[in-house]
């Protein structure tokens, strides 16, 4: 069994290159007995049989770039083992502590990691945490998805074009893990956090430090209970806000007077308080602090996660956290790329992430199925001529008082003109609003059915109006509607991803949650491979990290 090495970090890499992990391919008698007992969590068996293929020598060399060669120290734990543990964690939902415990308590984990009946885990929690940090820093978690795709395409059937890609893109909500609070509690949380850090450094009780700093009133377990005010009274709300702001200023002044090694951390926390003040608080004419009416566009909603945001998935579904995006291969049924965005950011912004990840794979995107949220993306706006977009177009309804809808106006793309039902022609540009002159509309015999404006009829042309026009024409045919239904496959994939990852984020911050989504995508892809090669059932729920 390899000993856990001591690591030093330098420029994002570790000293000491690891040895190649070469676990046996054939099942031992003891392993065969374990395999026979696994009835539901079949991915353990699949990983045991495919681990050497998944973590090939070439891929292990890539992972070894996380380390720097050195002649000193013990050989690090093979990164293939650590990567395998991160995948099994996504499958079981196990934390780092639970994973280390499972390596000595769960024979399924031991089967996969080649440590059957081990009395001690082959590595510690710190090694797993540092590996994850290095994997994220070097963006090698993306390669985990790509390896599953490489395995699937190595021997794919000839009826699938090896380069042509038909994909569907969609998203689902991912609620943040940090606590969402109102302005009063956000500021109180920052005060308690700063005083808690200083109290730990000085070896004192929080209450004593808070009293000395002049902020004892806001450091209780419940800020609003400690203030004990009538929160329905606007005057008392103003008093409470002033009290909290005074506490922030007092703590900031007291912290500045302390000589502490944690000053950068303290300053970062106080910067959070200033951010909250700027976004949520204004000063009235009387010089009193007051809450801003409305919500700031990019409002911070949690102290512990700076990137969580209020957002919407639909008119009725509010999200506090993030949105996860999945690009699903319609032919191979694999997840090729994923993305995570704050909940308040339009879905279309994720396509830059998706395109960058897809560029590392040997595919040419020829057909993209999306919903309307992605129509404004750069992937659609700047698409090559051979990229076919499939999407349900925005409906065009009749105007006010039953006036002609926009679709009765004919666009001549070759001539760059728009023609009204009365055969009046004007030049147009995509993205512009065309105003027909009143001199043409007033005497028009169709005026009553077209407009009631004294200025004449106006028609807004979408920047991608030609595509929308094509989409509307397609969905009027049975073949076009059948094509639209193909996008349902990505919704099923998102349901599987939600099953493995859960509805709530595991980590704080977008990048860590992207790592978690990527390894979840690996789990889903492995199930697709397992079903394809072994005719296995659909993914099943498992009850926990250990038997």
Description:
The structure is a single chain. The protein is an alpha+beta fold and 547 residues long. Among the domains are: 9-138, no CATH class; 183-291; 400-474, no CATH class. The chain has helices at residues 29-37, 43-54, 57-64, 79-92, 96-105, 107-113, 125-137, 141-154, 183-202, 206-213, 223-227, 234-256, 263-280, 351-358, 378-381, 438-441, 447-450, 465-474, 478-485, 488-501, 510-534; strands at residues 9-10, 13-15, 67-68, 164-175, 281-283, 289-291, 309-312, 318-329, 335-342, 364-369, 388-390, 410-412, 417-419, 425-427, 433-435, 458-460. Strands 4, 7, 8, 9, 10 and 11 form a six-stranded mixed beta sheet that branches. Helix 9 packs parallel to helix 12 (234-256). It is flat. It starts with 8 loop residues before the first strand and ends in a 13-residue tail after the last helix.
